[in-house]
Amino acid sequence: MLRYYWKNLTDRGVVLKPDLVVQTRDRVLVVDVTVRHEDRDYLENGRQEKINKYTRLLPQLKERFGASEDKVVPIAIRSRRGMPKSTMGDLKSLGIKDRKTALTLLLIAVRSSIELYHTFMELGVHVLPTATCVS
What is the pTM of this model? Predict the structure, then answer.
């Protein structure tokens, strides 16, 4: 059985909203996408930020879903030149092993980020950046 969970989660009074929580028979995965510029170490920093942010939810989710295994799966995507090897490895933990599917996900994530940017910039609305749900 495979289930997806999209609700806000709370840890010690802090509301966290990962893009996706995936539950299979024996594991629970917290998936969150970040699109970053590839200069310096922004991409690896973004990946690590996602891990640090959502790791604290794992015990709660593991108990809620009765999972024996848990993992934060950060999907870090370069804003201009594709996906790093670490992201391909993370996608494999979701069962996505072929490059074509991975590149399709990359294009969807980048397009969604661009649409969000234009929506808020054209309206003059300033919001804190949040990840989008790519499904």
Answer: 0.71
